[in-house]
Design goal:
This protein is an alpha/beta fold and 393 residues long. The chain has twelve helices and 25 strands. Strands 1-2-7-8-9-10-11 form a seven-stranded mixed β-sheet, with helices on one face. Strands 19, 20, 21, 22, 23, 24 and 25 form a seven-stranded mixed β-sheet that branches. Helix 8 packs across helix 12 (369-388) and helix 9 crosses helix 10. The protein binds MU-OXO-diiron. MU-OXO-diiron (FEO) binds at residues 77, 79, 81-82, 144, 163, 220.
């Protein structure tokens, strides 16, 4: 694709990957993704911000066909979907200086096989004069790796944010106006990539709160014409206060757990508590991650398989444990045939979460009236915790 103008002298030269369906060999990409790169042309110097995923390098090469000179290569983030093209760029533009944060320098050496002397580090707040255009580097750690920085183009008030404020979506639209049309994609991206670093993301939001921003140009997805909307969405997602929502990953083999899940959903809804159930063998884990952004409570439901939780449920617990959502309450329900430690093992799999575990409800075979009454008590306990949190009246 040929370069596309964002404002005069600032061009988009990245790649749309319409067909990619999995990221990090883990994350579903129902709408593909993009690897954005931006060319900033000053009166005297030209800078390229971020590169692209190696598999799409041909698109960047094409976009730079008529760009004879690049003076600075700026690596906001060393993950290969944004840095993979750098070795080729250093060959194409041998005079270019590669600029990155101090934390990024050894990571560029480790991940790309560069020599340390090929990387010039820039400090937080440092400015780079391109001639009539000034880039300011702002360290924004953990969005999404520890070395990440953002680059702010002062004269045009554009924040090149790399991963944060991004969305996994491939589109020929250069801009998005407002957030509603990409809310799902942006939230999915935050959930899968940023949620574990929620508190640091909030600190980064504080760090940019006084910047005068006209456009946010992330390195995945379209450019935000309305920066306030996506920033406010990030404020909501990173806020400590959860929503009145139970996330319920579940698995059933012969229907007993399904009966328990159905009963618990009814008991919760009857008490005014919203429920997002996810039947794990057929679930898009991106949607589970998105629900975890808001949930106050997690209930894991499944049968016992060889003394522990069903592996498909275990996957959900491992994911939740890794994403460290803001949930405050958790419980385990399920079934067993003859013996097992399903509840204890499931609880142990959520060790990273700061949650109160309510009493589990585990029954032998089919749930009987006493088991259903126990589920009613669990629903009442959850509703009570939500009332204490001020999210259910
Ligand atoms: Fe899009 Fe963390 O890389």
């Amino acid at each position: 694709m040929k370069p596309r103008q964002i404002v005069p002298g600032v061009l988009a030269v990245g790649a749309q990957d319409f067909d990619r369906r999995l990221f990090d060999a883990l994350i579903p990409l129902p709408d593909g993704t993009s690897y954005n790169a931006y060319l900033v042309q000053g009166r005297d110097k030209t800078a390229l911000i971020d590169a692209v995923e190696p598999a799409m390098l041909h698109v960047l090469k094409d976009g730079l066909n008529d760009v004879p000179r690049v003076d600075y290569l700026i690596s906001n983030h060393t993950e290969q979907d944004h840095s993979g093209g750098i070795p080729w760029l250093l060959e194409r533009y041998p005079q270019a200086q590669l600029l990155a944060s101090a934390t990024a320098k050894p990571m560029l050496v480790d991940h790309l096989g560069l020599r340390a002397e090929q990387v010039r580090t820039v400090a937080d707040g440092e400015r780079l004069d391109l001639g009539g255009r000034t880039l300011r580097f702002i360290t924004t750690p953990w969005v999404h790796w520890p070395e990440t920085m953002s680059t702010y183009l002062e004269e045009d008030r554009i924040l090149f944010s790399c991963d944060w404020f991004g969305s996994h979506v491939a589109t020929t639209d250069l801009f998005v106006d407002g957030i509603e049309c990409i809310r799902q994609e942006a939230k999915r991206y935050y959930a899968e990539i940023m949620m574990p670093f929620r508190k640091i993301v909030r600190q980064n939001l504080e760090k940019i709160k006084d910047l005068d921003i006209s456009l946010i140009a992330p390195s995945h997805g379209p450019i935000h014409k309305d920066p306030g909307s996506i920033i406010q969405a990030y404020r909501d997602w990173t806020d400590d206060r959860p929503h009145n929502l139970v996330v319920l990953p579940w698995v059933t083999m012969h229907g007993s757990t399904a009966l328990m899940v159905e009963h618990l959903i009814g008991a919760l809804v009857g008490r005014g508590v919203a429920v997002a159930p996810f039947n794990m063998p057929v679930t898009d884990i991106g949607k589970l991650a998105m629900a975890l952004v808001d949930a106050a409570t997690i209930v894991a439901a499944g049968p016992t398989v060889h003394v522990g939780p069903h592996p498909a449920l275990f996957n959900a617990l491992i994911l939740a444990n890794a994403l460290r959502p803001k949930a405050r309450v958790a419980a385990v329900i399920g079934t067993y045939g003859w013996a097992g430690k399903m509840a204890e093992t499931a609880k142990g799999a959520l060790a990273n979460l700061k949650v109160e575990f309510l009493d589990p409800v585990i029954c032998k075979g089919l749930p009987r009236p006493a088991d259903l009454e126990a589920l009613d008590r669990l629903a009442e306990a959850i509703a009570g915790r939500h009332r204490e949190l001020g999210i259910l009246s």
